[in-house]
Design brief:
Elements (H helix, E strand, L loop, with lengths): L3 H26 L20 H35 L15 H30 L6 E8 L2 E6 L7 E5 L21 E4 L4 E7 L4 E5 L4 E5 L5 E5 L5 E6 L12 E7 L1 H14 L6 H9 L1
Parallel strand pairs: 1-5, 4-10
Antiparallel strand pairs: 1-2, 2-3, 5-8, 6-7, 9-10
Helix pairs in contact: 1-2, 2-3
Bound molecules: copper (II) ion (CU).
């Protein structure tokens, strides 16, 4: 029998489908501040690397539409079943228990969806994991509760320093509460930077959202990741693995500058951090 309610359901589903893109891309339209969170920000943070753009495209164009479509379809199906097959609408239920065609369909369709997701996913993974020849290598060590950095000597460095969050009383104009640090790590723009990441005490996780990097810092292990920032500026991140009482207060800050400025900073830093005992080494000595 023809049922007018069916038209209503179809129209509701169509309206939902029309709203979907608006919901999905509203976040992209919201103004984003690069390198730090912005009030009212929705969606993924602004990115300044190619891998970041690829990651966000994968998320916004593939994952979010697929998961939204699946969630809405399942919701629609549930509503339809509850309305169409409740006891009063359908007093004599069907005795059907097997349907070969249906069973093949609901096995095959999810497999095809997964294959559709897997292809761009593996391409992105390869891009993230395969580190191109790097101009700069920096060793980053997670400590309770700050990061320390080492710039190797053969690249003009030969020094290391600790990066500790600025306390509220020390904040200068332009600083960001809970993100600004005493010593920013500096890297040149448009160069491949390789990070070697480890930890001295417990597991931490080094994360800079604007570069789309997150890598666990594990004691006794040297993990690697890379980025190539395409824009100068200051980029913040936070430790992303619960690591103890001050987990929320160990931000990471990387400043991206021109090649010339980077060379100047190297010269200054060599003097500034010359012979500077890392807190970490100090602690290790004290434990002996
Ligand atoms: Cu941590």
């Amino acid at each position: 029998m023809h049922n007018p309610n069916r038209h209503f359901l179809r129209r509701a589903a169509l309206a939902g489908a029309a709203f979907l893109p608006i919901l999905l891309f509203a976040g992209l339209a919201a103004a984003q501040v690069e390198g730090q969170p912005a009030p009212g920000g929705v969606g993924l943070p602004a990115t300044v690397t190619e891998v970041g753009r690829e990651t966000q495209q994968f998320y916004n164009v593939v994952l979010l539409p697929v998961i939204s479509f699946i969630a809405l379809s399942v919701l629609g199906l549930l509503v339809y079943v509850a309305w169409r097959f409740n006891e009063s609408a359908n007093p004599v239920p069907s005795k059907l228990t097997h349907h070969t065609g249906l069973e093949i369909a609901w096995t095959l369709v999810p497999v095809l969806i997964l294959v559709f997701i897997a292809i761009p996913s593996f391409r992105l993974l390869a891009h993230q994991v395969e580190i191109p020849p790097a101009k700069i290598t920096i060793k980053v060590t997670g400590n309770q509760w700050y990061w320390s950095y080492k710039y190797p000597e053969d690249q003009g460095g030969g020094f290391g320093f600790d990066q500790v969050m600025k306390q509220e009383a020390d904040l200068q104009p332009g600083d960001v509460r809970l993100l600004s640090v005493d010593n920013e790590a500096v890297v040149p723009v448009n160069e491949v930077v390789k990070l070697q990441i480890t930890a001295s005490d417990v597991i931490h996780s080094f994360t800079i959202p604007a570069f789309s990097i997150r890598m666990d810092a594990v004691p006794g292990r040297l993990n690697e990741t890379w980025f190539k920032a395409e824009k100068e500026g200051i980029y913040y991140g936070q430790c992303s693995k619960i690591c103890g009482k001050d987990h929320a207060f160990m931000p990471a800050a990387i400043r991206v500058v021109s090649w010339e400025k980077y060379q100047e900073w190297l010269e200054d830093a060599k003097k500034k951090f010359a012979g500077a005992e890392s807190r970490q080494r100090f602690a290790a000595a004290a434990n002996q």
